[in-house]
Amino acid sequence: IKWTEGRGWHDAELVPYAPLSIDPANMTLHYAQTIFEGLKAYRQPDGSVATFRPHANAERFQASARRMAMPELPAELFIEACDALIQQDRAWVPDSGEASLYLRPFMFASEVGLGVRPANEFLFIVIASPAGAYFPGGVKPVSVWLSEEYVRAVKGGTGAAKTGGNYAASLVAQAQAASHGCDQVVWLDAVEHRWIEEMGGMNLYFVYGDRIVTPELTGSLLPGITRDSLLTIARDLGYTAEEGRITTEDWQRDNADGTLTEVFACGTAAVITPVGSVKSERADWVQGDGQPGPVTMRLRKALLELQTGHAADTHGWMHPLG
Ligand code: PMP
Fold first, then answer.
1. Which stretch of DSSP H or E encloses residue 306?
2. Residue ranges of the chain assigned to CATH 3.30.470.10
3. Bridge-based pairing state of the strands 2-4 and 203-208
4. What is the pLDDT of residues 233-260, one digit of tens each?
5. Where are the N6-(pyridoxal phosphate)lysine residues found in this chain (predicted)?
6. 322: pLDDT confidence band, cut at 50, 70 and 90?
7. Which CATH number is correct for 2-131, 3.30.470.10, 3.40.50.2300, 3.40.47.10, 3.10.310.40?
8. Is residue 38 within 6 Å of ligand 1 at its C-beta?
């Protein structure tokens, strides 16, 4: 779907996957006016297909667009575009289990010009790719690196938007995590470098017995849809679920004295991933016993059962395609 200043959204079309031809002076290549989303379509037990909370993705896409001085795509058009692609690619939705068809809606400036200003032409596209189960061999805890050198986002910056530049800026820290033998980077706040924000592409939860806590939305972390869903699912299951503030010192101390029983990360791609060990320039510890914990696994099961149609959709989160 195209957007042109003065004309609005126009010329929606469904075409076979193919390369785009890009002008060397395309404004996105220079100024990175680009946003994206990620959501999954799951096969349901009756053979139908459904997406999980696409309205929430559509709303976050609009919020990202506002931050990046881009036009807001109406939520109905966002969902209609995803639905049309899934209908077309129906055969690519895996038959069952945790496998899914991953959808990647995105928008970028399609105007040509070298002046630094918001573009007047944009292109919104959705592509799809089958995604296997994230842990085909069983859930495996990840090791994380606390990044004290680099920051992902600052207040007033673009951290709460799903824009390409945030990910470009994170690559060097991800590489640093890997050089320390860690799977993922954990971002800290930009001012004191001690408040836990989020992981590379997932939000974090801290489990204190039957109370679970996730870092509050400070404006510099992404408001994850999985994070939001888990606040509700956890309460449904009888846990106390809250937003709060946790420092690296809290994490290390509460783990050592046994009050912090589990830590996990959550996001569309992996659903829920246990955190097994933590490293920084100054410290190195095993989280709990290093194994996936019972609360983590219970929440993971509950969310996946909902998404794959094996549990009642009591919150109206599933969007069936018929
Ligand atoms: N934080 C970041 C930086 C992410 O890229 C993602 C993935 N979209 C998340 C958190 C988790 O968000 P969601 O649950 O909506 O996938």
1. helix 294-307
2. 2-131
3. unpaired
4. 999 999 999 999 999 999 999 999 999 9
5. 162
6. low
7. 3.30.470.10
8. yes
Judge if pTM exceeds 0.80.
Answer: yes
Which of 222, 268, 304 has most ligand 1 atoms within 8 Å of CB, for mutation?
A: 222
Identity at 131, one-letter amino acid code: A
Using CB atoms within 10 Å of the CB of residue 296, give its burial: 0 to 12 exposed, 13 to 18 middle, 19+ buried.
buried
The number of beta carbons lying within 10 Å of the beta carbon of residue 35 is 26
157 conformational bin, left if phi > 0, alpha if psi -120 to 50, beta if neither: beta
Nearest to 268 by CA among 237, 223, 232, 233: 223
Ranges in the chain annotated CATH 3.20.10.10: 142-307
Task: Determine the distance separating the centroid of ligand 1 and the alpha carbon of 23, expressed in angstroms.
Answer: 31
Rounded-to-integer distance, Cα 125 and Cα 114, Å:
23
Q: H or E element: which one contains 186?
A: strand 184-188
Could you give the CA distance from residue 193 to residue 207 in angstroms, rounded to a whole number? 22
168/118 Cα distance (integer angstroms): 20
Q: Tens of pLDDT along 104-160?
A: 999 999 999 999 999 999 999 999 999 998 887 889 999 999 999 999 999 899 999
Q: Is the CB of 226 within 6 Å of ligand 1?
A: yes
Ligand 1 center from residue 60 Cα (angstroms):
11
Is 142-307 in CATH node 3.20.10.10? yes
Alpha carbon of 25 to ligand 1 centroid (Å):
31
Q: Ligand 1 centroid vs 267 CA: distance in angstroms?
A: 5
Say yes or no: CB of residue 203 within 6 Å of ligand 1: yes
Query: Is ipTM strictly over 0.90?
Result: yes
pLDDT tier at 285, thresholds 50, 70, 90:
very high
